[in-house]
From TrEMBL, chain A:
The keyword Transport applies. PANTHER family: ARABINOSE-BINDING PROTEIN-RELATED, BLR3389 PROTEIN. Keywords: Sugar transport, Transport. This is Multiple sugar transport system substrate-binding protein. The keyword Transcription regulation does not apply. Transmembrane segments: none annotated. InterPro entries: Bact_solute-bd_prot1 (IPR050490), SBP (IPR006059), TAT_signal (IPR006311). It comes from the Bacteria.
From TrEMBL, chain B:
It holds the Pfam family BPD_transp_1. The chain crosses the membrane at residues 28-47, 89-110, 122-144, 167-190, 221-241, 278-298. Residues 85-294 form the ABC transmembrane type-1 domain. The lineage of its organism: Bacteria, Bacillati, Actinomycetota, Actinomycetes, Streptosporangiales. CDD domains: TM_PBP2. It is found in: Cell membrane. This is Multiple sugar transport system permease protein. Gene3D superfamilies: MetI-like.
Length: 444, 306
């Protein structure tokens, strides 16, 4: 029996979680604010184990820069976070700085809810366009205007328990997981792990539960591997390739129905199971690293398995944005850019949390390359499957939740892959038909 | 409006005080502060909300174009709006019946128990004192989890209480009944205690059985309380949101999403404030219809009773 599930990024019981986060970091109240300090209000949703790293970075900045006080506010991840940003930004009295998912940029009403980034001030703080991974930098723009400063990319990865995999003979002589290719090899690997686990499902991922996006994440990792797409370039046509989409869904159903993955675990339970050695594999984003290390789980990580061709994996990028303020204090603004530049330049520290830095110089730093297991999957960065750039995509967006809802019963076996795909397509058609609340012509 | 005032019952023909017409006569001065607040915070927002429902305004207050009844047309053709409206109706029917019935049964039980009454009262009323977030965490994390939850663990069953679309609504009803039945229980208990005891004594002398007493004295005298409870309960159930939002988020597969959550979803997480207003007005219309129906129904009953 395992205890109650861990605190997860996505519990909507936001109030209590935000309080917990604030209590854990002890810095929701500006206790340290001196009269000579400039205060920067910073909102973020990093509540999983990457939140620990973010807090350390904020404290390191405080030591480094005594004239600036960063007031860190940890809010619950997901829909409630974006609702809060939207509300704060629309009122014009928002925090000075907030974290963000790049894929949400098209949907949040940049221009109305977010203020554009002042490239001059950014350069003054020491950051230039050339420092960033070009496709990610490109995604931080809307209509040629920069609205976000990219921080990282966080792909789906495969965590594996080194003890169990060792017993099952799945590790190579270097102690690393032997890579698999194709469905048969993956199933064979999982079956071996299942045998040494006494028949318990060896794989865990967020398959079920409140607003689950796990099924979307797994599907959006598998399906693009065979070259599948969701929407046409301009976002006006559904371009789902039924045969390829179904192939991915059939595999997901097979994993659930043959007892290779536990289809009854929600996010918290899947992480708890892997942490406690009750699952040999965990498919999740890269952000659970710190917590697993702290709890001494014998684990390592690798890229999401290549099943249908390439090894692409679902991913999004964390970024910094400036929520809209009616009257931005120039002094606070300058301090904000300094803080952003500090975080971005110290991306190697941030990579400890599991994420792949978007800041190119960090990728070559020996500190980063020495990080284990974080640098094991950095090659995925050229093969990430990002969301289509339309207004209803991105972390915890309607699209993710609708697709999660459509595919969750496929894994559970109560819906055929065909029914799951039909439900997803219907949801996508509905989202496309609904008018964009922030049409481009309103951006100014 | 008539403005005649009854003559003061005085003996001597004193000069009638000069009736000042208008404001002071109706106590308008005293009522004005309330009226002002009422207009500012209820009437005006209601009108504003209706105006918003006729526009394409987003959460940032931009894109504010008049679109006529487009939002309503879209809502009427929106299967998820209908689904959530249907869920609200289903929840209202499924929850109101046990909440009224069990409230009565528990009150009768406790009223007739002669020992440790405080404990029974507290037991039934206790859950009602909990905030919705606490209730939701309790059921979500301790009672309903499929693999280690209290129910499956005790019964040895394997039910996905919140994960199975055919079960989830019943689970929400169960939680809601556990949580809120205490209020109806309390109203019934108070009503029971106000029934004059001599009625029962007289009935006992006439040789009435316990069942006779219940049928001919208790239940008829609880009629008004029942009406009140049904009215309050219907409105409360139609407005269900907290526990469902916190426990299932409207899922699985939209099977529990009430219409208030749908309005929240399209308005706050979908940023379409105008459309959300239209959805809200549809719920408003539903509540007005239900209230009018109840009024008529009860007026008839009152007439029959008198």
């Amino acid at each position: 029996m395992h205890g109650p599930p861990d605190i997860t990024r996505r519990h909507l019981l936001g109030g209590s979680l935000a309080l917990l986060g604030a209590a854990a970091t002890g810095c929701a109240i500006p206790v340290g604010l001196g009269s000579s300090q400039t205060r920067v209000q910073y909102w973020h949703f990093l509540g999983a184990s990457d939140g620990i790293i973010m807090n350390q970075m904020v404290q390191a900045f405080a030591k480094d820069t005594p004239d600036i006080f960063v007031e860190e506010n940890v809010l619950a991840w997901g829909e409630p976070y974006y609702t809060k940003i939207a509300m704060a930004g629309s009122g014009g009295r928002s925090p000075d700085l907030a974290t963000f998912h790049l894929a949400r940029l098209a949907g949040i009403g940049a221009g109305a809810i977010l203020d554009p980034i002042d490239v001059k001030l950014l350069e003054e703080a020491g950051l230039r366009a050339a420092d960033f991974s070009p496709p990610i930098w490109e995604r931080a723009h809307l209509d040629g205007v920069l609205y976000a400063i990219p921080f990282d990319a966080h792909p789906m990865v495969q965590y594996y328990n080194t003890d169990i995999c060792g017993k099952a003979g799945l590790l190579g002589p270097d102690g690393k997981l032997l890579p698999t290719k194709g469905v048969d090899e993956l199933v064979a690997q999982l079956t071996k792990a299942k045998e040494v686990m006494g028949g318990k499902p060896p794989l865990a991922f967020d398959a079920l539960g409140l607003g689950t996006v796990g099924p979307w994440r797994v599907w959006w990792s598998l399906y693009p591997q065979s070259g599948g797409t969701l929407l046409s370039e301009d976002g006006t046509k559904i371009t789902i390739d039924d045969a390829k989409a179904l192939e991915a869904l059939r595999l997901m159903q097979r994993l659930g129905q043959e007892g290779l993955c536990d289809w009854r675990t929600d996010y918290g339970a899947s992480v708890a199971k892997f942490t406690n050695g009750e699952a040999a594999f965990l498919w999740n984003g890269d952000w659970e690293t710190t917590g697993l290390k702290e709890r001494k789980t014998p684990f390592s990580m690798t890229r999401f398995p290549a099943v249908f061709g390439t090894g692409s994996a679902q991913a999004d990028c964390h970024a910094f944005v400036l929520p809209h303020q009616r009257n931005r204090d120039p002094e606070v603004e300058r301090a904000t850019y300094r803080f952003i530049a500090y975080l971005v330049k110290n991306s190697a520290d941030w990579a400890v949390a599991g994420h792949v830095p978007a800041y190119l110089p960090a990728l070559e730093q020996p500190e980063y390359l020495a990080l284990q297991p974080q640098s094991e999957y950095r090659s995925v960065i050229t093969e990430v499957a990002l969301d289509p750039q339309v207004w209803y995509t991105g972390s915890a967006s309607r699209l993710w939740i609708e697709f999660g809802e459509a595919f969750s019963p496929v894994i559970g076996g109560t819906r055929t892959p065909e029914e799951g795909l039909a439900a997803a397509k219907a949801a996508l058609a509905r989202l496309m038909a609904a008018p964009n609340p922030f049409p481009a012509e309103e951006r100014s | 409006m008539t403005t005649t005032v009854a003559a003061p019952p005085t003996a001597a023909p004193v000069a009638t005080p000069k009736v000042r017409r208008g404001w002071t006569q109706h106590g308008m001065v005293f009522v004005a502060p309330f009226l002002l607040i009422y207009v500012a915070f209820l009437v005006w927002p209601t009108l504003l909300g209706f105006q918003m429902s006729l526009s394409s305004v987003n959460i940032a207050g931009r894109n504010n174009n008049f679109v006529g009844f487009d939002n309503y047309l879209e809502a009427f053709g929106d299967p998820r709006m209908w689904r959530s409206l249907w869920n609200t109706v289903v929840f209202t029917v499924l929850s109101t019946i046990p909440l009224v019935f069990l409230g009565l049964v528990f009150a009768l039980l406790v009223h007739n128990l002669r020992f440790m009454q405080w404990l029974w009262r507290l037991s039934f009323f206790g859950p009602f004192l909990l905030p919705s977030a606490v209730v939701s965490i309790l059921w979500l994390q301790m009672i309903y989890p499929p693999d280690y939850g209290l129910i499956n663990g005790t019964l040895g069953t394997d039910v996905l209480w919140l994960g199975d679309p055919s079960v989830a609504m019943w689970s929400m009803v169960l939680t809601t009944v556990w949580w809120t039945v205490g209020f109806n229980f309390l109203l019934y208990l108070a009503a029971l205690q106000s029934i004059p005891h001599h009625l029962y004594e007289a009935a006992a002398i006439d040789g009435a059985s316990a069942w006779d007493k219940l049928r001919s004295i208790t239940l008829p005298l609880l009629g008004r309380t029942t009406m009140l409870i049904v009215v309050l309960q219907l409105v409360a159930s139609l407005k269900v949101f907290d526990q469902i939002y916190l426990m299932t988020g409207g899922g699985p597969q939209d099977s529990t999403r009430p219409i208030i959550e749908y309005a929240y979803d399209v308005g706050f997480t979908g940023y379409r404030t105008g459309y959300a207003s239209a959805v809200s007005y549809i719920l408003f219309a539903l509540i007005v219809i239900v209230s009018l129906a109840q009024l008529r129904l009860f007026r008839k009953r009152e007439e029959v009773a008198s």
